[in-house]
Amino acid sequence: MTVISEKKHRRHLTRNDMIAYVLLSPYIMLFSVFILVPVLMTAGLSFTTFDVINPPKFTGIANYVYLFTQDTVFMKYVLPNTFLYAIVVGVGGYILSFLIAWMLAQIQALPRTLLSLCIYVPSMLGQVFIGVIWRTIFSGDQSGWMNAILLQLGWIDQPIQFLLTSKYFMLIMIIVSLWSSMGIGFLSMISGILNINREIYEAAYIDGLRNRFQEIVHVTIPSMKPQMLFGAVMSITSAFNMGWIGVTLAGVNPTPAYSGQLITNHIDDYGFIRYEMGYAACVSVMLLIIVYAFNLLAHRFFDEND
Amino acid sequence: MREIKKKKRRSARFLGTVVDPKHFSTTQLKFYVILVPLALFMILPVVMIVNRAFMPLGELFAFPPHIFVHDPTLTNFRNLFELSGTTGVPFLRYLLNSLVITLLTVLLNLVITIFGAYAFAKKRFVGKKFLFELNQLALMFVPTAVAISRYIVITKLGLIDTLAVHVLSLAAMPVGLFLVKQFTDQLPDALLEAAVIDGAKERHIIFKIIVPLIRPALATSVVLTFQQVWMAVEASNNYITDDSLRTLAYYLGSLSTNNAVAAAGTSAAASLILFLPNLIIFIWMQSQVMNTMSHSGIK
Question: Of A80, A194, B164, B172, which has the highest C-beta tally within 10 A?
Fold first, then answer.
């Protein structure tokens, strides 16, 4: 029935429609110019060879073939690094942010506000600040914090070049990223948990809920699915947007022995250093597909419409 | 009698573990044991840099390094101002650029977000579902992925080396629009219908009815936009070649990467200058942000 009336409604544009379009037009315009068109263009460029100076030359799927068969750096370092990073920082960071938000909901309002502020602050520091902080902490001489602590404890004799050693590099990247990942998704989850109706808990306990773990699984998460989904989308996307972290820490692109090379760095490497734009676009398309796949997974878990 | 007592105790225990408790109970201690050290770990590096901004050179490279400044000085800030004088573009120019860009972007974003959120939340029109889904898809947008195409589009539009490119490239923010729209959704339709019956114009409905009611969401959008623009380096890096059109964040960032050791103190001072406005605005709007977040779910 509703479908029919919807159809009827669609037949011609009313004055109401026009007002809505006028209201939306500035947003649509900027959205198209800076987000939509670039995405479509990137998809188009990925089938070409393009060096910025000469016009793009159509080469079919040659870039994709090269990506999967010839680009050893991509297959050997970039792809595994990106998945490791996305799973630990995106998914792991998400689970952490839920657990922290849940614990924060169990204490009183004033200490909760103070503690959540402390936990949120790193996420709004920005690239410059994060770089300065962590390069100071992991600095390769004895004035670096990590080295100073280890030297004082007598665990090492010589300062370690943390940010130049591929063995430690990914681990440091992950610590720094997790540290700065409690952002807007985290805030959303705190208020999601706080807004669950108290009666649902009481009813569930009367129905035989035994402990807090059951409470989380059977009451908390199902009652805040929309926030869980928003948090998941934010968490995954910001993990991929943190691609600059390795280059900021190392100070160079590529990172030491490609140990912290993520797909975004690979794009920059080809796009802005080697000027192979067609190929960089092809890698970009892969990135967008990977981000989308992760988000699709999140929707599977938490979408209420499914 | 014993039955009642038992029951009472059980219900008391239940109240002790309830979400958002009004009183302290010892059952909360276990959460503090985890949360307090965690919060300290999160905030310690920030405290450290704030202190380093005021350290004289001797303390910056002391062994073992200490967290709190012993002998505070403003030398680092003074060096920062003087250093920029030598590159030909004075510090104040970068600051002014950033202030103008941030203000314009926040204002522009506010206007388009109000209009957009109102249309999405309260209007029926053809293509609404599709457009909103598209925006929802854009929540997962990764700007670096399209930096090249963006550069081409911006060149074609003749926006290279203009202040406008800073503003326009960040003014449409899918997350902001999404949050404000979700918040506007919960306003009762009856409210607007009443206004329409009274003969109110759209302009009146938007600015006199909607805007005052969605203030918390708008505040949140302002906070998020501010954080993005104030810290943004993408436009300065990619679309600007003229130093005098670049932003403070870009300049301060280039300082800290160029000569990491020599600039240990100045880069800490620079970080502090960049970070402080962000912190102040967030604390100021904190309760509004949390209010908005309770409507943030993707349904």
Answer: B172
Cβ <8 Å between A192 and B120: no
Q: Between chains, do A121 and B138 touch, taking CB under 8 Å as contact?
A: no
- Alpha helices of chain B — where are they, by DSSP H? 2-16, 29-52, 57-60, 75-86, 91-122, 128-138, 147-156, 163-171, 174-185, 189-197, 202-204, 211-213, 215-231, 234-238, 248-258, 264-293
pLDDT at B1: 44
Complex ipTM over 0.95: no
Write the CB contacts of A98 (distance below 8 Å, at least 6 apart in sequence).
A189, A228, A231
Q: For CA atoms A138, A143, A145, A148, give the dihedral sign.
A: positive
Minimal Cβ distance to B38: which of A26, A100, A193: A100
Residue A62 falls inside a structural domain: no
pLDDT digit string (tens) for B68-97? Answer: 999 999 988 888 887 765 667 888 889 999
- Contact at CB, A128 and B227, closer than 8 angstroms: no
Is residue A11 one of the residues assigned to a domain? Answer: no
pLDDT: which is higher, A52 or B48: B48
* A5, pLDDT greater than 50: no
Out of B39, B111, B293, the one facing A191 most closely (by C-beta) is: B293
Q: Among all residues of chain A, which has the CA nearest to that of B135? A: A31
Average pLDDT, chain A: 89
Best probe of the B interface among A39, A106, A211, by most B CBs < 10 A, is A106
Tell me whether residue A129 is in a domain: yes
Confirm if A120 and A183 have CB atoms less than 8 A apart.
yes
pLDDT digit string, tens, across residues A132-141: 889 889 988 8
Q: To 10 degrees, the CA torsion angle through A95, A97, A103, A105? A: -120
Residue type at position A230: F
- CATH number of A292's domain: 1.10.3720.10
Whole-model pTM? 0.88
| pLDDT at res. B88 | 74
Which amino acid type is present at position A143? S
In order of their start, the domains of chain B are 30-73 (no CATH), 86-293 (1.10.3720.10)
pLDDT score of B11 more than 50: no
Q: Phi/psi at A285 (nearest 5 deg)?
A: -60, -40
Range of the domain at A213: 71-302
Q: What is the CA radius of gyration of chain A?
A: 24
> Which of A75-84, A115-124, A152-161 bottoms out in mean pLDDT, i.e. has the lowest?
A152-161
CA dist., res. A125 & res. A13, Å (int):
46
The tally of domains found in chain A comes to: 1
What is the pLDDT confidence band of residue A301, given thresholds at 50, 70 and 90? confident
Q: Is A167 inside any structural domain?
A: yes
Q: Quick check: B283 and A122 CB within 8 A?
A: no
Q: What is the largest CA-CA distance in chain B?
A: 86
